[in-house]
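Limitations
The structure tokens in this dataset are predictions for the assembled complex, not deposited experimental models. Users should treat interface geometry with appropriate caution, especially where small molecules or nucleic acid strands are included. An illustrative entry is reproduced here so readers can see what is and is not provided.
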Amino acid sequence: METKVDDVTLRYEVRGEGDPVLFLHGFPLSGAMWDPVVDRLADGWRCIVPDLRGMGGSGAGPVDGIADYADDAARVLDALGETRPVVVVGMSMGGYVAFAFCRAYPERVRALALVDTREEADTEETARGRRETAEKALKEGSAAIADDMVGKLFAAGAPEDLKARWRNVIASTPPEGVAAALRAMAERPDSTGTLRALDRPVLVVVGGEDAVTPVRDARRMADTAGQATLEVVPGAGHMAVVEAPEPVASSLRRFLGGLPAAAQGGR
Ligand code: MLT
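Predicted assembly:
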């Protein structure tokens, strides 16, 4: 399915019936990363899975900051007529977008699941590195950053065909989409206060071998959120969603099943 925001076409998938769950993917990937998880949840929930602008099947367009991706996700919900509060599930960059969504649309958030992500902003050094990588992608193409990225995203034992599949996704992401996302991530605000103030159930899931947003980040987020549940997926890296979809989906299923009854939306 598609909707237009200004001149940008946003593509999204919707599967299942039930209370709505919004899945936000990582960088520079696509909503397809959630397929093996959605396969396991669509029997009980309405799974809404956008491709963020400039990635997957969504067109590239101007990005002023991470909040623009959250606005796009809200426009997708609007296009679906989805006025009920949603459970927001964000993986890595999707988690950064999820925090922005919580800031912009708190009344639309029923609960938050943070998967292989972090609440802290970039250090200056990391932000500088991202800006350099953005330049490189624009000059040399996305394939030029794909090998380096894949090396960090997966656990050492991850299957080669899985790594090759996602390497291809990164390499075929338009350089404008890659650069815009890198710059937005570099400038994103610290979300510690957002997480601390969030008066909603929180789940934190992390691959036990995540080298990008390691287990210590997940523990810190769970502590900051207060009543959060923390689930560590042994043997999985930053891409736990595709490396180990069964335990990730099981964690989400337990979390979703244990949520207090949904308040009915209607903004
Ligand atoms: C992601 O998976 O979205 C990125 O690795 C996030 C990041 O670089 O901080």
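Some entries come with short summary sentences. For this one: Residues 26-27, 92-93, 185, 212, 238 surround D-malate (CB under 6 Å).
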